């Protein structure tokens, strides 16, 4: 039985898999995402390219039967990709722009079955709508530090949840990995969900 390997440093992704009963082995790809090559792509193309790169980077490092899952998320607003804000100033500027508006949270997924040499890659997109946050609410939210390290600078399941009245599409996709997509991908690879849950 192959191991499930999550090619990600994301605690949110690990938690999503584990809370659905999966037992992933974590292997961080350390892929450099901030290159001109990726930044020149559209938001949707970038997350697929990065998910594939992360999964293949780990593919080259392992010699045991595995199903490798690579992901990348970004928030598309005004046709631009808003990744992790990294600084409070950028986080405040972004929140001021997206308040009262909607954007698209794209997550690229790449799933490689090394035992069958098969690979499934796809993007899942969720529309996220923000309430009108006051300047004080934005400052208070950014001061938590949480938005600095997440795509788009918001957390649907964290401190910004009071400011997101609606989403259209998959909730888990926003948090970091689309679990309905993962289940379908495993089915396409020939594994039932109960089988997947005993892989480790
Ligand atoms: N909990 C939570 N995390 C979010 C949300 N939106 C984005 N993220 C996280 O933001 C991060 C997006 O950055 P990525 O570059 O895709 O992933 P990473 O965390 O750098 O980890 P790698 O896969 O190793 O690159 C991921 O960890 C997502 O789980 C959200 O609403 N809730």
Automatic annotation (TrEMBL):
Under catalytic activity, the entry for this protein gives: a 2'-deoxyribonucleoside 5'-triphosphate + H2O = a 2'-deoxyribonucleoside 5'-phosphate + diphosphate + H(+); a ribonucleoside 5'-triphosphate + H2O = a ribonucleoside 5'-phosphate + diphosphate + H(+)
Answer yes or no on keyword Transmembrane helix: no
Cellular localisation: Cytoplasm
Q: Which Gene3D superfamilies match?
A: 3.90.950.10
Query: Which cofactor names does the annotation list?
Result: a divalent metal cation
Checking Pfam families in the record gives:
Maf (PF02545)
Q: Which UniProt keywords apply?
A: Cytoplasm, Hydrolase, Nucleotide metabolism
| GO annotation, cellular component aspect | cytoplasm
Q: Which domain of life is it from?
A: Bacteria
UniProt feature coiled coil, ranges: none
Family designation: Belongs to the Maf family.
Protein name as it appears in the record:
Nucleoside triphosphate pyrophosphatase
Species of the source? Candidatus Planktophila vernalis
């Amino acid at each position: 039985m192959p191991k499930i390997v999550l090619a990600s440093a994301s605690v949110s992704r690990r938690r999503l898999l584990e809370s659905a009963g999966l037992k992933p082995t974590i292997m961080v790809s350390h892929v450099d995402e901030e290159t001109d090559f990726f930044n020149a792509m559209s938001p949707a193309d970038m997350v697929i390219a990065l998910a594939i790169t992360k999964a293949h980077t780990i593919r080259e490092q392992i010699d045991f039967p595995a199903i490798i899952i690579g992901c990348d998320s970004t928030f598309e607003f005004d046709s631009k990709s808003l990744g992790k804000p990294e600084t409070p100033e950028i986080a405040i500027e972004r929140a001021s722009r997206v308040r009262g508006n909607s954007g698209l949270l794209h997550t690229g997924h790449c799933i490689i079955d090394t035992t069958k040499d098969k690979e499934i890659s796809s993007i899942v997109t969720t529309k996220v709508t923000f309430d009108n946050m006051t300047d004080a609410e934005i400052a208070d939210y950014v001061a938590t530090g949480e938005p600095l390290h997440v795509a788009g600078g918001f957390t649907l399941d964290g401190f910004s949840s009071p400011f997101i009245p609606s989403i259209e599409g998959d909730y888990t996709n926003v948090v970091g990995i689309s679990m309905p997509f993962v289940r379908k991908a495993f089915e396409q690879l020939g594994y039932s969900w109960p089988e997947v849950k005993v892989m480790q």
